Amino acid sequence: MRQRSRLEAIAIMCFASIWFITMHTCIKAARETTPVAVVLWSQYAIQFAVLTVAFAPRVPGFLRAPRLGLQYLRAALLFGCMVGMFTAVGLMPLADIIAIAFFAPLIITALSVAMLGERVTPAHWAAVAVAFVGVLVIIRPGMGVFAWAATIPLGVAVCVAFYQTLTRVLAGVGAEAMLYNATLLGFVAGSAAVPFFWQVPGLREALLLAAAGALGLAAHFCLIKAYQWAPASVVAPFSYVELLYATALGFAVFGDIPDAPTFAGGALVAASGLWLLHYQARRERAARAVAAEAAEAAE
Prior knowledge:
Number of helices: 13
Helix content: over 70%
Radius of gyration: 20 Å
Strand content: under 5%
């Protein structure tokens, strides 16, 4: 793969991370006066409208795509992630939420054994253990500062892990079909719930929600492109830009300043994830080298 493509992939991954955090900042600002159900429905409504127009000729095929049961289970997990995130941003600083949610890639390590039958080394489990210690440092149960709200992003991390693992299980299903069906389920579920909590957003809130919807679509598009243009081991580490940007934007917009334990715990979670990515990349390079040597010997 050409070097320029990798640099472009890294750049677009950074943009995706920045736009995701900006989206959550808009949601956090709107949540000051807007119920979670209204926020959630608005995001799904925007995305459903855009995707239905963009994929109009292909929608009937999406609705007949294979493994619909697993697709809708995956969609339900995504719905749970969004409920959790949109609830958490109204209760906690952004940096705390993102730091805890970054435990998800480590949970995937455990799920890959149970659901995918993959072999996980002791080094993988060590990274999971260190990251879990980091999460405990952030939420500090039993230290007098623990709040029930801290369990919400931890629940989000679990949902994200199952969601991403199911994405790998459904690798043979088209990405567009999975995206559309996930949005469809979320829109239907959100539409069923929103009448019980409905209030008309003010102009400020409506603009924030519209901006969040546009930013979310742009971020997902950039994320897909980043993984198309370069291997996960190249681009995934740059998702940790979210931690830095969430800290900076949380301070600039809301005056949130993470305390020392949050910085320390976030550093442990990030370091574990980055080390695991580096370790996996080294293993893949070694495996390719062995395969190349075997091919040469066979000639």
